[in-house]
Amino acid sequence: MEGREEDVRVGANKFSERLPIGTAAQSVESGRDYREPPPAPLFEAEEVASWSFYRAGIAEFVASFLFLYITVSTIVGAKRAPSACAGVGLQGIAWAVGGTIFCLVYCTAGISGGHINPAVTFGLLLARKLSLTRAIFYMVMQCLGAICGAAVVRSFQSTQYELLGGGTNTLSPAYTKASGLGAEVIGTFVLVYTVFSATDAKRSARDSHVPILAPLPIGFAVFVVHLATIPITGTGINPARSLGAAIVYNKKQAWDDHWIFWVGPFIGAALAAIYHQMVIRAMPFKSKA
Known about the structure:
Its main location: membrane. The chain is 64% helix and 0% strand. By secondary structure, it is mainly alpha-helical. Helix 3 packs parallel to helix 6 (132-156), helix 3 (51-80) packs across helix 11 and helix 5 runs antiparallel to helix 6.
């Protein structure tokens, strides 16, 4: 009990920057009460033969399916309303998407990590948090789940779906392609940076006295990014979400600027991974002590 009280009292000052950083922080001799997960191998043949690998892929498929179903249904319903006040509006869409991500990440985090987004998977791959084999499998399952989710919405309300754009991501006529790309890059950076921070082993140990769920800040990140970028691109920040809606709707407007919703999120995810690993955690640098 005394040790626990001491941990609470010291709090954020327990791990000062004078202690070893980067790869030196991974040693047992450092005396820290957390262990940095070892880098994932690029290829791991053994995991392909395990049931947990496929179970994780199924979890990503189902989560992406549910995410697209709720997202597209909410967008179509909001556009169907006779006025902004009569429907959920922009804030309602943002709350629906952010709340759904919170729920789905909470449900799947212990099975697959709760990525539900190829950009998140890509960022974690660059940080060596999972193997290339698993990353590719996750991305395929996420895209398939997204396509199925959008298809179910279309089957339920085909007329409204066709007339109201099918919940696709499109660049607003008031913005340039560069503006749309920048919005996607920054929005995805916010999301992936939050994912890294919320799941950081060091933060979990340092803030063990703070009862917070990792899915909560992730869901809020999605919420605030949607508030900022819905008027610009409809908010992609998730290539699977953009692809699923575009394939099912399959009209010219859905494909005109579709590249933005792949290039932008992947650049944003890469920048977030580099910033967190190189600057925040200083992982490539060893202590000179």
